[in-house]
Amino acid sequence: MSLFGKKQKGGYLGVDIGASSIKLVELANEKGRARLMTYGYAELPVSDAGGLLIDDTKKAGELLAEVCKKAGCRSTIAMAALPMSNVYSTILSLPPTKDRKQLKPIIDVEIGKLSPLPLSEMITYSTFLDGEEKKSEKSQTAQMTEMDEKEIKVLVTGAAKTLVQKYVEIFKVAKLQLQALDTESFALIRSLVGKDKSAIMIIDLGARRSNITIVEKGIPFVTRSVNLGGDAITSRMSASINVDMAQAERMKRDFGEVQSTQSTLAGGLPVLLEPVFQSLVNEIRYAFQLFANMEFTETKKVEKIILTGGSAHLPRVPEYLSATLNMNVYRGDPWARVVYPQDLSVVLEEIGPRMSVAVGLAMREIE
Fold first, then answer.
1. Which of 62, 152, 282, 290 is the most exposed place for a label (fewest CB within 10 A)?
2. Is the dihedral of CA 320, 324, 328, 331 positive or negative?
3. Would you give the DSSP letter of residue 258?
4. What's this model's pTM, rounded to 2 decimal places?
């Protein structure tokens, strides 16, 4: 990819390392708004996509360096995201206090009770969920009085130190400075939700996993990662119509090719894919229940679904989910809050779903 616009220093580089791919976006801060400088991506061939890319730090680092070189990235300072399947997340209710530094020992004790790993083996980060919105002095005073009586809510995220070290090694090989590690859920909220305060589900349809996030007022209350993605669709098609994986992958891009005498599902989705998508629907409904039963949420009901990820552009998927779940389902547009040349609109629309995490990461220091 070539660079867009005039030469400018101080770009913000967002890097999304998937199971078998790397996506990156470089943005510039143009008077408080993100402007696209360049982008790039690389996907390993199906035959090479055995293990997870992140487990081979040398290979991943070299591939990242190659993508940066081809894209012509100017910035060497990057933000990356930990995979949702490897991130621990919970919301805690803690006793009210005026000095929140006193809460750290309490938070550590609670994490020790709930996390899958010992606290000594994890890196954690706490976000206080109150006081996010600006209020008048009168309402702030009232809120402080109320806070003295109510418990404090804290969003805690954490990941294994061994996983974080893999990212450090990858960026070291690529000769990039890893400024921060974010979570995929927050990156997607930045690029796809913005300032929308309503209850929204984001479904990131990846190659091997699908990540489900329910966000309200910019806070990810429900995060789930399920072992179901585009590869499962390809495998199902390969087995059902007796073609090799490479041919099934090509046919997947146009479900019209697999229409036969069989009837179709809601929205026109081929009936042979019912087992795959029914599993996804079951996970979505389960996430709905989790959200509805949470004591910290307000609306209790998701208003709409945003699809993203490499498999979000598959034909008839939004229509199927919309008809099956009886709600509005849209493909997300991560470029909606990004300035870019209009003659790139067609190609950016095509690759948009797979770039959502990278765009959100690059926005981290702008918004």
1. 282
2. negative
3. G
4. 0.85
Residue-wise pLDDT for 58-114, tens only, equals 999 999 999 999 999 999 999 999 989 899 888 888 888 777 778 888 888 888 888
Q: β-pairing, 200-205 with 210-216?
A: antiparallel
Beta pairing partners, 307: 203, 331
The closest of 236, 252, 227 to 313, measured between CA atoms, is 252
**Is the CATH code 3.30.420.40 the one for domain 195-336?**
yes
CA angle (274, 278, 281) in 5-degree steps: 145
Average pLDDT score, the chain:
84
Helix (H, G, I), strand (E, B) or coil at 187: helix
Pairing of strands 33-43, 122-128: unpaired
| Length of the chain counted residue by residue | 367
> pLDDT by residue (tens digit) across 31-53?
889 999 999 999 876 555 557 88
Better pLDDT: 223 or 270: 223
Strand partners, 213: 202, 223
Report DSSP state, residue 54.
Answer: G
Burial zone of 241 (CB within 10 Å; 0-12 exposed, 13-18 middle, 19+ buried)? middle
The pLDDT value recorded for residue 345 is 93
CATH of domain 88-160: 3.30.1490
- Phi-psi sector, 86: left (phi>0), alpha (psi -120 to 50), beta: alpha
Buried b (16+ CB within 10 A) or exposed e, 307-330: bbbbbbbbbbbbebbbbbbebebe
Q: How far is residue 151's CA from residue 184's CA, in Å, rounded to a whole number?
A: 28
In contact, 318 and 284? CB cutoff 8 Å: no
Q: Taking CA 253 as the corner, what is the angle to CA 252 and CA 254, rounded to the nearest 5 degrees?
A: 90
**Residue 308 near residue 353 (C-beta atoms within 8 A):** yes
The residue whose two tokens read 């009901």 is 301
10 Å CB burial of residue 42 (0-12, 13-18, 19+) is middle
**How would DSSP label each residue in 262-285?**
S-B-GGG-BGGGHHHHHHHHHHHH
Query: Where in the sequence of the chain do the CATH 3.30.420.40 domains occur?
Result: 195-336
